[in-house]
Design goal:
Layout: H1 22-27, H2 37-40, H3 43-52, H4 73-86, E1 94-100, E2 106-112, E3 115-117, E4 120-126, H5 130-137, E5 140-147, E6 152-162, H6 165-173, H7 177-186, H8 197-213, E7 222-236, E8 244-250, E9 258-263
Antiparallel strand pairs: 1-2, 1-5, 3-4, 4-7, 5-6, 6-7, 7-8, 8-9
Helix pairs in contact: 7-8
The protein binds flavin mononucleotide (FMN).
Organism: Streptomyces coffeae
Biased composition (Acidic residues): 22-41
Family: Belongs to the pyridoxamine 5'-phosphate oxidase family.
Length: 265
């Protein structure tokens, strides 16, 4: 465990005088009937909780030697994703996707990575969702991965395009039955206001049945998107916070087509 993860005196769970209830308080999260939330959730106790939280790494942090970084970002990204997956990271293949519509106001959400290759970073969603509509208005996005076990973050920015109907259908066919059912249920209505919870339950029951009956069913709004990166940044945490940032920017004149530079952390 690195120094950055250790509890400091006074942190919940550190056993310091005066905070002996802190662990009990956090233990009751989710049990709303049993807890007077106003009593435990004062601003002060919340601040104390935040100050005591630490990123839980999975052991000694790896080192990013900028001189050893490859000429292009893709091999490094794939290596880091493999290492995140191998480090017990619970969701190594999920990322934040940030988009903005015509009004320029950003929005973000978690999506799954469906591929990363010479074409770019792939993800699937409904064209009719909020993010789909924003991408239609402004075809640029930013992706962010955070892998706490290895103390790493990757940010990717660039232009986004639709992969086309055939590839989008193949993307959906390649997913699990539950993912297909969710896509069928959400087709054309993801991000819309839902009338009631019962409506959701009914729609999903019908979609589960259909996905079982018709494993090749398609959801017309399901779209595979590809982000073509023009910037990829790798961030490696260091125990004493002398973090290392390596940024790649597309530069056709450079060998490999990318310029690599260090950034202040
Ligand atoms: C772990 C996780 C993975 C997700 N993966 C996807 C995904 O691959 N595609 C998708 O459309 N939504 C996915 N979602 C749901 C999105 O975060 C989001 O709620 C939904 O797509 C609607 O977003 P929008 O209203 O901004 O368009 C995922 C959510 C979580 C928590």
């Amino acid at each position: 465990m690195s120094g950055a993860e250790e509890n400091e005196p006074g942190a919940p769970g550190a056993g310091a005088a005066g905070d002996s209830d802190a662990v009990g308080e956090t233990d009751t999260v989710g049990d709303s009937d049993a807890v007077d939330t106003d009593a435990v959730d004062s601003d002060a106790s919340f601040q104390e909780l935040l100050r005591g939280l630490r990123v839980r790494h999975g052991g000694e942090l790896p080192v990013l030697d900028p001189d050893m970084a490859p000429d292009a970002p893709l091999p490094l990204f794939r290596r880091w994703l493999r290492e995140a997956a191998g480090s017990d990271e619970p969701a190594a293949h999920t990322m934040m996707l940030a988009t903005a519509g015509a009004d320029g106001r950003p929005s973000q959400r978690t999506v799954m990575l469906h591929g990363a290759d010479a074409r770019g970073w792939h993800f699937g969603t409904h064209r009719t969702s909020r993010k789909g509509r924003e991408l239609a208005e402004r075809p640029y996005a930013s992706l962010a991965f955070h892998w706490p076990r290895t103390g790493r973050q990757v940010r990717i920015g660039g232009r986004v395009h639709e992969a086309g109907a055939e590839e989008s259908a193949a993307d959906l066919r390649g997913r699990s039955p539950a993912a297909l059912a969710a896509a069928l249920a959400g087709a054309g209505r993801q991000s819309e206001v839902l009338g009631s919870y019962q409506e959701l339950v009914r729609a999903f029951e019908a979609a589960y049945e259909r996905a079982e009956r018709e494993p090749d069913a398609t959801a017309p709004s399901w779209t595979l998107y590809v982000l073509e990166p023009d910037e990829v940044e790798f961030y490696q945490e260091e125990a004493r916070r002398r973090h290392v940032r390596v940024r790649y920017r597309r530069a056709p004149e450079e060998p490999g087509g990318w310029r690599r530079e260090l950034l202040w952390p």
